[in-house]
TrEMBL record:
Species for this entry: Pieris macdunnoughi
Name assigned to this protein: STX17-like N-terminal domain-containing protein
Keywords assigned by UniProt, alphabetized: Membrane, Transmembrane, Transmembrane helix
KW Transmembrane (keyword) present: yes
Residue ranges crossing the lipid bilayer per the database entry: 239-259, 265-285
Domain (STX17-like N-terminal) ranges: 10-107
Amino acid sequence: MDEEGKLPLKRVELSLSKFNEVAIPHHLDLLRQHKANILKYEETGDYSRVRCEQVHARRVSSQLRALLGEMEALRRQVCCADRARFDKLTQHSRDLTLKAIMDYLGVIERSCIAIVESNQTRASACETTPLSVNRPATDDGMESGSLASTDSVGIVPEQVQLRVEPDASMSLREREAVLAGWSALQSEVRALHEAWQSVQAAALRQRRPLEAAADGVEVAADAVGDARTHLALAERLRAGMYGAGGALAGAALFGPAGLLLGAKAGAAAVVAGSALGYLAAAVVGRRRRAQIDERPPDKGQ
């Protein structure tokens, strides 16, 4: 009942080849391009373009996640007997996707650390740099009495205006926007990794029973080989025992006749009967050993 409506691998090979040869490689290539652009713009300090590339990378990552979901849905349509082959055909695409995921997570971590350290350096520099005070000049070029009195005690008068550098403020906002972009991209890449884990887990569940069955076949083959080896040794021992058994049989047959002829004649009859029995059985034993030696070796060994 579970196989009703399932398709053989032959029916889905065209769709699978589109995943492996077109869709997934194309999106992985886009991710590589966006990563290279991000690193280039970060190096030049063009944070607006960094933010734009982060948005593009997040969109491509979302599309790649959707492709993995479609590939997993296609796998569920394949009959169980062909799923191992399906997983083997998608292994390379899954490996490349995981490599891209780990690469992006590493870039995100390094970039965030660099931005935070840069902000800390700028904050320390601002703390140690004295502020310049701009005072409006009077018409007659003389300071007013209030300004002079406040200068004497080190109090900044109300007329003094503090000027904040606009470039520094703008750079800080851009860096904060880049950090927010990295956070959003990291969330999307982690979602992509979860989709990859789902596909990978299905492939592993399919592989483990097959590996266990293969191990069982190997163990059974080893057991059969050992059993055949033991049987061959037993045949050789039995063939060797033909001579001893024949000697005992000859002594049993000729012994009573020898006793009727006297003790000496009986002893001679026993020896003669044993010799005849041993020779006859030895011939049979040699033939049996020759048959065993000429037997072709077992392929399982």
